[in-house]
Design brief:
Layout (H helix, E strand, L loop, with lengths): L1 H24 L3 H6 L5 H15 L3 H5 L1 H14 L1 H15 L1
Amino acid sequence: MRFVIFSLVWGLFWWFSSVYYFYYIHDVGSAYWALGGWGYPLIAMVFLAADMRLRKNKWTQDNLWRYVTLACLGGILLYYPVLLLVLIGLALVA
């Protein structure tokens, strides 16, 4: 369930931030911003690795919603670095 919530929050962030970027910042740049969606598998693996390590922790079990909230915020904070990795990868392939 934690992974589903994390994926839903991250996907909504990706969608709404791309739409916001398109309408309010720059329409051409939003295509590059939206490429961050290709970094989801990497972020999902980071979340699953951290979750496997922390799920048996007492604090995690006692504060489940705080843990999920912090995990979602961490995933959102990783969006830009993963976007840069995607863009570098595209530059190397092209």
